[in-house]
Design a protein that fits this description.
This protein is of the alpha+beta class. It is built from one helix and 28 strands. The strands form seven sheets. The protein has a four-stranded antiparallel sheet with strand order 3-2-1-28. InterPro entries: Host-pathogen_enzymatic-act, N2O_reductase_N, WD40/YVTN_repeat-like_dom_sf, YVTN_b-propeller_repeat.
């Protein structure tokens, strides 16, 4: 009898121990599941962080490239912090007083092209490391540049021989010259790249070039002392600054009919916002910019900037515009929503041309 009781007691203790062990195992399994879930969450967070990092690298930084005409250099501005991050010497111009003037980004944003009028060539800058990598030799005073959307070709106005130079950007040479008007300066491509619009300063005309045949197909007067040109994203209208007449020519590209908008004295640069809702004109003699609403073709605001503003460009998102101030060696930044200057700082000697883009990281 005692033996049975002792056996039953031992069985109960053994069962109790077994239950305790089972509870411990279950607790361990729960802890393992929780740990596994934690590891999985960490892995998910890590993947998301890596994805965000890769996306940030893919998009890259928004940078402004500014031609310092009297400094023989290109300044690079970080548009997020609005700080000068590098100055790139273009070429040794010796005793020449003029450096880079026209500037444009390649469509893939891997290269910047800057025209050097006195040196008669085109500087090539690699955006990955902001390094001058080469030049394309030209003739006869290259001024402004327009790059085709496929990145294979560019047109450069050459004032010295009244023509447009056709540049093969892959092989880095001049393949053709297209006769236009006298002293061509500004140039812009239609959105489909089928036409190039060339502003001829000395005879106050606009040349239209068929880019397939590479010939001038039209030429007509637009206003005294025309300089720069910008086209709306939908290709309906072009805006040309007339330095000698303190106005802007509005060209309706479907029929080439003209209208005019009065702005400040000495209008020079012009740019259209990416969404086509704003046009900004720099007024070199009044130290202002005129903001135009292209829906009504009227100036909606005049903003004071630095001394002798020349170039202007919008950021890709259209929230800011950068204006080069030639005489005080600075750039003014305009908040497009508020239409106010938010910052002005030095960038180099005689800033003039400017282009802005989102630069892909390496």
């Amino acid at each position: 009898m005692d033996r049975c009781q002792n056996g039953r007691k031992a069985c109960r203790e053994s069962l109790r121990e077994c239950r305790g062990n089972l509870h411990e195992v279950r607790s361990d399994r729960k802890a393992c599941r929780e740990k596994l879930q934690e590891v999985r969450s960490d892995r998910k967070a890590c993947r998301e962080s890596l994805r965000a990092c890769r996306e940030s690298q893919r998009r890259g930084d928004i940078l402004a490239y500014i031609c310092n005409f009297l400094g023989n250099s290109v300044a690079v501005i970080d548009c997020k912090t609005d700080t000068l991050i590098k100055t790139i010497s273009t070429l040794n111009h010796g005793n020449r007083i003029s450096g880079p003037e026209g500037i444009a980004l390649s469509p893939d944003r891997t290269s910047v092209y800057a025209t050097n009028a006195d040196q008669a060539n085109l500087s090539i800058i690699r955006t990955m490391d902001q390094t001058l990598t080469g030049t394309i030799e030209m003739l006869n005073t290259p001024r402004k540049i327009a790059v085709f959307s496929d990145g294979k070709k560019a047109y450069v106005t050459t004032a010295g021989n009244n023509s447009v130079a056709v540049i093969d950007l892959i092989n880095q040479n001049v393949t053709n010259t297209i006769p236009v008007g006298m002293a061509p300066f500004g140039i812009a491509l239609s959105p489909d790249n089928g036409k190039a619009y060339v502003v001829n300063e000395d005879d106050s005309t606009l040349s239209i070039v068929d880019t397939m045949t590479e010939t001038q197909v039209d030429n007509f007067p637009i206003g005294p002392g025309p300089l720069c040109i910008a086209i709306l994203p939908d290709g309906t209208k072009a805006y040309v600054t007339n330095e000698s007449n303190a106005n802007v020519s509005v060209i309706h590209l479907s029929n080439n009919q003209l209208s005019f908008i009065s702005v400040g004295a000495g209008p020079f640069g012009v740019a259209v916002s990416p969404n086509g809702e704003r046009v900004i004109v720099t007024n070199g003699n009044t130290n202002t910019v005129s903001v135009i609403d292209p829906q009504i073709d009227q100036v909606i605001k005049t903003i004071t900037v630095g001394l002798n503003p020349f170039g202007v460009a919008f950021t890709p998102d259209g929230t800011k515009a950068y204006v080069t101030n030639y005489r005080d060696n600075s750039i003014s930044i305009i908040d497009i929503q508020k239409l106010t200057v938010t910052n002005t700082f030095a960038v180099g000697n005689g800033p003039i041309g400017v282009t802005i883009g989102q630069i892909a990281s390496s």
